Amino acid sequence: MDFTLQALIKRAYATPCLRQNIYNKGMIHLYCDYSGHEERTDCGIACCLVYNRTIQVSAEKIGFEPIGDSVYGELLAITYSLEILGEALTEHRPKIAIVFTDCSCIARLLSKDQFSKPSYEEITNQITVALTKLQIRFPDVEVRVKVMNSKHKRNNALHRMAHVAARKVIGK
């Protein structure tokens, strides 16, 4: 295990509001993030899953167009987190699962029917389909996608783990 990850886990346990998420058996929390660069086509998406005293961080290097579109990258990170959640729900049965993102325009995008870019519409539709499939497969679990407010994001070691993993997978 990497030193940065160990330090962040220690910090998460030391923070009361994050510690309650870690120990919670009734909720799964997923913190997702995207890392990319305007001049490169490869990017990293990552997810930190927190449930019942376990913290699992996973990341994936992917390529996409348009280059440098961080909103699209954040949407990809949500999709990635929903895939991870689907796998986790086959093993665990919480009452609620919350996917946290730090992109403030996500809530607006998920509730729209018209988009400024066709790529946003496509990935948003994929997220909607994934949420619907999860609801059908696991009707007892409420799944939400939420934007972290600045208070929740500030010094949030769990979100930082996803951020570091997304950057690390592309060698930043």
In short:
With 172 residues, this protein is of the alpha/beta class.
Give an overview of the whole structure:
By secondary structure, the protein is an alpha/beta fold. It has a single domain, classed as 2-Layer Sandwich (Nucleotidyltransferase, domain 5), CATH 3.30.420.10. It contains seven helices and five strands; from the N terminus they run ααβββαβααβαα. It has helices spanning 3-14, 16-23, 70-91, 106-110, 118-137, 150-153, 157-169, and strands at residues 27-35, 42-51, 54-63, 96-101, 142-147. It has a five-stranded mixed β-sheet, sandwiched between helices. A hairpin with a 6-residue loop joins strand 1 (27-35) and strand 2. Helix 1 (3-14) runs antiparallel to helix 7 (157-169) and helix 3 (70-91) runs parallel beside helix 5 (118-137). The longest helix is centred in the middle third of the chain and has 22 residues, at 70-91. The protein starts with a helix and ends with a helix. 34% of the residues are buried.
Topology overview:
Elements: H1 3-14, H2 16-23, E1 27-35, E2 42-51, E3 54-63, H3 70-91, E4 96-101, H4 106-110, H5 118-137, E5 142-147, H6 150-153, H7 157-169
Parallel strand pairs: 1-4, 4-5
Antiparallel strand pairs: 1-2, 2-3
Helix pairs in contact: 1-7, 3-5
Percent of residues in β-strands: 15-25%
Rounded mean pLDDT score = 86
* Total tally of structural domains: 1
Principal-axes shape call: globular
Rounded to an integer, what's the Rg over CA atoms?
15 Å
In whole angstroms, the N-to-C terminal distance is: 18 Å
* Count of extended strands: 5
